[in-house]
């Protein structure tokens, strides 16, 4: 409101305001109209991380609410849109398959997975053995996997057990097993479909159709050219959201809601397909018939009497450096192209704008007010072009710099789509390497203080296999023997005692059924602990990096700490309103630190969101089970 009043105080004429609008000066001419539709539009642009920057909360309360909404809402909205996109793509593929069958008279058959599942369920005598335990689960999943030509790991079996056990009984009945098995087979089929090169073609066709629809509708609603409309659609669906084009009418905002909700999921699957295609190509190029590398170096440690594979310890680090070099090279190439395409146009446009400003008869006070908003050639120097390329492929898109030529915009659309796929791979490598490093550091610290070290997923799987080998053939085992075995495996005594007490009937002896229930409980509790640990580590790192870099931006940009923290969060979530942008471009150190913050913060945040998904799913199952026990929940279950 203060900025709008300051603008009004300049007493610009109608002709001068028209010139200001045409020249695109970055001035606040009026306060945002926060009516219901505009507010809903702001919320969705924020939760989808598009963040055009045309509406920005200015109060501390508004920013606090935005922080909470993004922290809780981005994973939820993102998941819903990805799921919606998956169903749209499956519907499109089903329609395409049906039309192909009609044209070529193809006879469709049931999926091989579900044929095998039905055969497996019918083959088992459920009257004699109504419950499935961990070892039974491994046998059945391994049998199903072998018949389909794939393999199954113990970690997958443990994760299957955790996901399938809805009632917390540490075993599976017929209904639980069938539902979980169908979901497992469906996920494997989807993964196989995504790994197919044909899926990229199908999704690209669907995305092209959706972009054409957006081009026609937004062109009619906003009076944009076809090229401007298609540019807006690509920048929106990739969540870059520069803000140089944004819906302004009520009709276009209403259509924007539907367009983004459907198109976001389609674009997400398209980018995922590109990412998988790049990963497949890189894997074939690097791993097929490769010479011996660090991964194959072995070193025996005689003091412990076992062989350590040193290459495995550094393999994630090697992948991280490989991805880093590749993404830096891609950003440098993009910066060179953007600088070449836009710099000459910026120089000519600056001279034209200066001439127009000189002819508009602005007063000295008006020119002094407009001077900070004048475009400069600094926008397309190489350092600024590199920052623009990084903000584009990370989908932050502050909007302080945008391409103005058709050539630059065409290159941007292709560059962004390919770059986002590369950055997705890079973020996964950053998160994996950082997580491994943090776990290693924490294990060392715990050993120094005489505490038990943290258990990794590989060590957890080894523990499950060893304990099953010891307990599988035993008809019964005493509680003391079970606790002794657990202590040898490095388990926490209190936690293990609670798990034993949950399955022991009080006689101090565990029979074979109780042993298998104990193993099931062990798997569920340990996997849940690993999930909480992974989420906690990444959440802590997100907070630490935000707080640390907020301090840096407080010094380098002369912001207060709250403003710097706001900027760090809006950048980390890739919303990028553009209300605050680092201006420390005089030194290379400022640019380097800004890019470093962006890369590592996005990597940790992406891993934090990814690790929160199983926790949210477990919480949903618990809430659903609790609601099902209520009187109205049981009544509702009769009709569902």
UniProtKB/TrEMBL annotation:
It comes from Eutreptiella gymnastica. It comes from the Eukaryota. Keywords: Ion channel, Ion transport, Membrane, Transmembrane, Transmembrane helix, Transport. InterPro entries: 2pore_dom_K_chnl, EF-hand-dom_pair, K_chnl_dom. It is a multi-pass membrane protein. The keyword Transmembrane applies. Its main location: membrane. Coiled coil: none annotated. Belongs to the two pore domain potassium channel (TC 1.A.1.8) family. GO terms for biological process: stabilization of membrane potential. Pfam families: Ion_trans_2. One of its GO terms (molecular function) is outward rectifier potassium channel activity. Residues 29-89, 206-275, 378-433, 543-609 form the Potassium channel domain. This is Potassium channel domain-containing protein. Gene3D superfamilies: 1.10.287.70.
